Amino acid sequence: MIKLNGDTIGDKEINTNGNFSERDTNIISGSTQGQLSGFDPNNSFSVSGLSLGDSGVSIGDQFNFDNTLGSVIELNDTSTPSYTIPGSSGSDEFKSAFGNARKSGLKEFEFGGKKYNTNLSTDPNFGKDKVVEGQKSFTGRYTSPGTPDTPEVRVDAFSNLGRRQQIRGIKTGTAMEKRNTMKAARNEAKSIKGKNIFETLKLRKEFKKNARTGAKTKMTDDRASQFKVVNEQRRLQNEQGVNHRLGKKDRVVTQKGVKGSSSTPASKDKETMEQYFKRRGVGGIVKSPRQSKQKNTNSTF
Fold it and tell me: What is the average pLDDT across 115-122?
């Protein structure tokens, strides 16, 4: 309901079934928004044996992930630091009980409700601090731009719009060249001078007349040669059933649509992340759902 100054002036209702027409669907599939349906947010990878800082990988870098072009959109350093476990051979009370049992020649003794033997450890590091080395690793995600669907295209064979536009362009271009030539000729004629005013006007008139004849002749020759090229193109198109004249043989030429893909294939010369690490002289094991097998570049160093 539409109101103006408190008065009702009409009703307006729009009811739709919520479905796109075939034409709108084709437009959407060929647009940037149409590519969003093919976006795979789960493209991920993990690298072990190498920290993010040492890898040299940055957001926006592109690599070949099993023949798929991937652009890095997220990076997370998952490295763990080294830590130390303090060494200990027991409390002072335990050491005293252990020593007394050995002095007494006992093979076992009881301490804190548990039984222990009196054998000495053969481990040279027994009781010393233990250092646990941290693990270097990082993870990331990448995206690959999708290729949209190519909608079906139908062309009327008798449609001659392309040829008419070519002809129109030739006529406009050659006419403009003629006008520019005559403009330059008129300016040049101003510098011509005779013995008197009458001779000057006569010479200038003859000069502009000759220039006009030459410019018109050149325009005609240029148009003829360019029209010949266009007509030859049209002849070849006619043989293929495109753009021929209106008649019994007219038909509609249909170009079938092509289904797009959710990712862009990588070129053969696009390096993988493993190749990138090798080129920089660093090692790392890359794992990715798209990769058919793991490659350990660390083994080459």
Answer: 83
